Amino acid sequence: MLISTFYFVFFYQEIVSVFSWGRVGHNLIAHLAQSQLDSSTNNWIQNYIPRNLSGDLSAIASWPDIILYPMTNPLDYENWQWSLELHYINIPDWSCEYISSRDCLNNRCLEGALKNYSQRLIDNNYDYVQQQQALFFLVHFVGDVHQPLHGGFKGDLAGIKTTGFFFNEVNLTNLHIIWDVEIINIHINRHFQSDVNLYYQYLKSLMFNQSLLVNETYNDYKKWIDESVDYVCKQV
User: Residue 15 is part of which domain span?
Assistant: First the structure.
């Protein structure tokens, strides 16, 4: 954990240009979530955020991606490959229905990860480092579950095998990267003066204006997954 935390801090400036969903999408989701915390909850979370990050929950939101790759965690990435399958739900092509007994064997998927780490975070049988990791994973996976292609089809690896060109780009890309990176970036560039903070303020205003319309259990993870799967089948 100490090595991984070191590489998170050391490579943070490099990672922003590599995992744009990590920097932008995950950052925004964590920032919006932290804006809704009461003071006691926020103070409790501060105990698990490295001091050099000034209590910023969004600063740790991409850690579960950073630890996976040799370019961002060269000394330790192999030890974290077990966590890769936790970032996704893969359903049979065009089944358009997530069935946990079929699609999440032994809870080795995104839903299982959300359940596991939400419990670890509040279970005092786990030590400080394990609970810190649980927070980092949980923040990240809440972001992943709301990116529709993290609930995509097995046949095309959630859009990775579906390739093409996006707008005026000259380099070949794939559908998963478009949803991870390109759509959110082009939206911010075109409509928010390339300023992520302006987009954050816009989303925050929408969130608070719509908060009274939301009626769901905070840990209804399957509902979140069903929404992503439905979106993949109807829109993507």
Answer: 2-234
